Amino acid sequence: MKSEILALLRERGDYVSGQELCERFNVSRTAVWKAIGQLKKEGYGIEAVQNRGYRLADGREPFGQHALESRMDTKWAGHPVRFFEVLGSTNLQAKLDAENGAQEGTLIVADMQTAGRGRKGRSWSSPGRANVYFTLILKPDYAVELASMVTLVMGMAVTEGIRRACGVEAGIKWPNDIVVNGKKICGILAEMSVERAYIHYVVIGVGINVGEQTFPPEICDMATSLWEECGKQVSRAALIAEVMKAFETCYASFRKEGNLAGLTERYNEMLVNRDREVRVLDPKGEFRGIARGINPAGELLVERLDGTTAEVCGGEVSVRGIYGYV
Questions:
Q1: Tens digits of per-residue pLDDT, 224-278?
Q2: Do the beta carbons of residue 16 and residue 9 sit within 8 Å?
Q3: Per residue in 100-111, is it b (16+ CB within 10 Å) or e — as a string?
Q4: Which of 159, 232, 255, 293 minimizes the number of CB atoms within 10 Å of its CB?
């Protein structure tokens, strides 16, 4: 009920009477009073005025279960939310939950990770009270070869969520790095459990640099945060809710088409690689060319110097002007 009360107070933006809350949630005045008291103890700025009711008074919003639930305006993505103050890794927790029967749409969120991971086992710095770390559980029924596209779908959702929540012009460095002003602001890591041709589950982990922070010397020229880019504090709960809303929409298109055909134009608009020189580190041989966008399979189309087009589906791609590549 506390999450529902928060959602109503935020939506109304004015006083809501205790009687209305009682009738809305079919509880006693004592139950409402206790719920309001608990929310105040958690740090929410709620005003109580006799004969007027309750009002969410200021922008104070503790990051946690109730903040997330009260903002989750989706049908299935982000339901339920499982919030942890500290976790080793949201991906590891999500895999454990998926193995134990967690439903599709379950969202694992942590304020801090002690063993955050990026691609190829690289560590991901995950301090508390600063950033966003979450993992979404999917239980798909499509073919294994389609699963790799889900990472691109999440990349679109994160980009859209950042734009909506912060007004920052985020973009995508193919396939799954989110950048702002040429610096990385988010990483995405998808993992899955497969048996023969059957997918048991897919977990997609996201880490977004949100708050004011100091980056290690080795990455300070390549990393940024929303605080640095927009100069204000961003609600982490609101940001996650926007990402889930965008993901639900994009994922529906992907499921309907069975590929990225319905999302290709939109993805390419977000693609910072588009029409820029790239260096493709392919196991078969490195080459350079001009990135022309993705195709419905999520492959990066690279126009070689000889005029032919390569469909890049793996390996590392370096882009001029991004991450120090010149």
A1: 999 999 988 899 999 999 999 999 999 999 999 999 999 999 999 999 999 999 9
A2: yes
A3: eebeebbbbbbb
A4: 232
